[in-house]
Amino acid sequence: MSGGSAVSGRRIAGLYFSGTELRDLLVAWLALGVAFTLFFVGGSGGIGRILAAGVVPPLFVALSTAGVAFLLHEVAHKVVAVHYDQVAEFRADNSMLFLAVMSSLLGFIFAAPGAVHHRGRLTPREHGHIALAGPVVNLGLMAVFFPLFALGGIVGSETVTVLGARGIAINAFLAAFNLVPYGPLDGKTVLSWSKPVWAAVFVPSALLAFGLVFVLGLGFGGPF
């Protein structure tokens, strides 16, 4: 048990998560699910669409796409940090999660659910690898969601199509956004370690995100 949390720590796939960390991951996942459910219907004005869809399908899509994309991004940082013998744990930022939900009610979203904090001695290369892990996982998740997007069209399921489309779009955007070399974003750490590696990942990520999200509008269609 950690930090007075009522949740017991667990080892998952060989990786230890403290009780506090598991609680924070759950809180962040649920808050992001609610925030993105509201965001994709255009804010408070679209709540009627959520209710008409029965609440569960739109919330399930948001939890399975945005929620999973953000959390696996953070877990990837933890996995690589632990590989380099760091003490690493995710901590949710409750004020930012609250901001995500409130902003989504207004029809836009600002989501920064928290971060993996780690301590120990690291080389610039190791710092770069830890930072790069999150965006790389998001790029990999795009490939995971693509078959769902294709399957939705084959079987004629709008919900499956929306699930696949939003999974692709959200992960493309997250990969590109987090690689921007500014402030606390991953891109600044990756660029400090290796400019060629940063460019090799950021440029295609940015092109994919721009084309899929801003040109094609992938992920913004559907009943909710």
Provide an overview of this structure.
- The protein has 224 residues and is mainly alpha-helical.
- It is built from 8 helices and 4 strands.
- The strands form 2 sheets. The protein has a two-stranded antiparallel sheet. The chain has a two-stranded antiparallel ribbon with strand order 3-4.
- Strand 1 and strand 2 (15-17) form a beta hairpin.
- Helix 5 packs antiparallel against helix 6 (158-178) and helix 5 crosses helix 7 (186-193).
- The longest helix is centred in the middle third of the chain and has 32 residues, at 124-155.
- It is globular and about 55 Å long.
- The N and C termini lie far apart (40 Å).
Outline:
By secondary structure, the protein is mainly alpha-helical.
- Low-pLDDT parts are none
State the separation between the terminal residues, measured CA to CA: 40 Å
Total number of beta strands = 4
Q: Please work out how many helical segments DSSP would assign.
A: 8
**Whole-number mean pLDDT:** 93
- SSE series: EEHHHEHEHHHH
Give, in spatial order, the strands making up the sheet with the most strands: 1-2
Radius of gyration: 18 Å
Principal-axis shape equals globular
Beta percentage is: 5-15%
Structural class estimated from helices and strands: mainly alpha
Percent of residues in helices comes to: 55-70%
Largest sheet entry: 2 strands, antiparallel
